[in-house]
Amino acid sequence: MRPGIRADVVIPECRQYAQAAVATLQLLLICTRGHRAYTSQELDTIFRDVGTEFFRNLEQMTQKLAQKRCERQQEAHLRDPVKFRAPVPWNRDTRDKPRCLQYNFCVL
User: Does the CA dihedral 61-64-66-68 come out positive or negative?
Assistant: First the structure.
């Protein structure tokens, strides 16, 4: 098996998410190439479900990398609190309502 298929260049914590993101991105790109006509149901599945899965995997990678960064910064802070400030953990933004509604305007 070649190294690219195993995703050896990606840190182990993110490997599964990276492979899933690549697979879902491939589906999205194949669909948009226009080589065949897709039914409305197929397009709904691809752009809603597969698209959601793609961004979910990207978000999971971001969370794992931020957690790893935070751990490294915490170790550095414990060694030398004067030189290294305490880490600030990454928090996912909540998306309960569209941003335009949060600021009382909406662009159509």
Answer: negative
